Amino acid sequence: MNDRGPWAVTCRDVAGRLRSLTVFVRGSEVVVVAPAGEAAALDAAEAEQFRSVFATATEVAAMPAPGGSGPSRGTGTVSTMRQSDDGDPPAVAARPASSPCRGGTTTPIPGSAAIPALQGGAA
Length: 123
Known about the structure:
The chain is α+β, with helices and mostly antiparallel strands. The protein has helices at residues 44-62, 77-81; strands spanning 7-12, 18-26, 29-33. The longest helix has 19 residues, at 44-62.
């Protein structure tokens, strides 16, 4: 068992959009990459997949490096990322994020009239 990843675990963010956690081994460390700036919500099956992937990565990280006597220390993310089939990290199918301005949070007055300071009004 010397496949150093990456492994992908399907999950959803708090808005329910499909995302992916990536797990790989860097030297003797197990690295988990979450969706940028987001939380990952895992259902029971996804949590089991994450547990399995994390356990596998932990075993790989504890194995001696090829030709060495202790855990691998010199493998970086570049060589790790090449383990994927096409050389790129696993792709995640997702829809674009919705606008942060929803449900009456925008002003009904368009243009500079909505900003009193631009018309000499009180700020």
